[in-house]
Write a structure and sequence with these properties.
single chain, alpha/beta, 8 strands, globular
């Protein structure tokens, strides 16, 4: 089984001034003469971690990672202003120009897969290869499954904690009820909601629930950005038509690609990956039978690193 490459540090870092109120942190690591790639993190609102650099052979890749608007090391923290899918697509193009490349490999998992598809369908000539994992396309059906009813039936004990901040009369639309608290003026209610929202995801993304994930997702600063930004994007359906990314997947037909999906992914169920496979049959489609959603589950990680190795030449 393939595992992460050794830890490395970036050799170049900076901030992209977006011109509309955001400073987006970026970093480049690996071989300065290597194959260019960009890593798109999940959430939205999760930020990058040092482990993400290790999904690429540092002798063969030059990889750019960045914390999307409002999260991680980007500023201002947890900001929802000028923070949409299409703002992020524009940022990726600006970062490509900073990198100084005509094309690059695009890699994204979960929400990062959503963003990778959005970028690649908008700028297909800028994408040399596309690797996506844990496919999520912001359909209302997908959001309802995870935040209204569906996943709740598999984790009724954890779901009870997710419901706790929301009074019974407001539970008919939990995304809206959470938005009221996450964007409200009561700091205590905001943090309570942010932690409940984030811990729900941290507790359910692996095939076998991880206490470490639950703890890290519950840290106040992380939770605030993660919950506010996710809820903001889900409230607005990503500022795209329902089903748009599958509808427009034909634009990817000339891009070599790999779709990787955990069979028991509760966060982003396999039906969406299957729909993408049917709409983009040119890509290799891989189901990992003993995995959930997280990139660091052994079977998922093996396939991700096998994919980056495959395209390294």
């Amino acid at each position: 089984m393939r595992t992460l490459y050794p830890a490395i540090e970036p050799y170049r870092t900076g901030y992209l001034d977006t011109g509309d109120g955001h400073q987006v942190y970026w970093e480049i690591s690996g071989n300065p003469d290597g194959k260019p790639a960009v890593f798109l993190h999940g959430g939205p609102g999760a930020g990058c971690s040092p482990a993400h650099r290790r999904l690429f052979d540092p002798k063969k890749y030059r990889v750019l990672l960045f914390d999307q608007r409002g999260c991680g090391r980007s500023k201002p923290h947890a900001s929802l202003e000028n923070n949409t899918t299409w703002d992020l697509v524009k940022d990726i193009e600006s970062l490509r120009q900073i990198m100084g490349v005509e094309k690059w490999l695009v890699f994204g998992g979960s929400w990062g897969a959503t963003l990778a598809l959005s970028y690649s369908e908008t700028h297909p000539t800028r994408v040399s290869e596309l690797i996506v994992r844990g496919i999520f396309t912001l359909k209302k059906r997908e959001i309802d499954w995870y935040y209204q009813e569906g996943a709740s039936n598999l984790f009724p004990d954890l779901w009870e904690s997710f419901l706790a901040p929301i009074p019974l009369p407001e539970r008919g639309d939990l995304v809206a009820a959470y938005r009221k608290r996450l964007t409200g003026s009561d700091p205590k209610a905001q943090i309570e909601a942010a932690r409940a929202w984030s811990i729900w995801e941290g507790s359910t993304i692996k095939l076998l629930p991880s206490k470490q994930n639950s703890t890290s997702y519950g840290q106040d600063q992380f939770a605030l950005a993660f919950a506010r930004i996710e809820n903001h994007y889900f409230t607005h359906g990503g500022w795209m038509d329902d089903g748009q990314l599958i509808r427009d997947a034909g634009k990817l037909k000339d891009i070599p690609g790999v779709i990787i999906q955990g069979r028991y992914d509760v966060c982003t169920p396999a039906i969406t990956a299957w729909e993408l496979h049917k709409a983009w049959p040119e890509a290799e489609f891989i189901i990992v039978d003993d995995a959930g959603h997280a990139f660091d589950e052994p079977g998922i990680m093996h396939q991700l690193i096998s994919a980056t190795d495959k395209f390294a030449g």
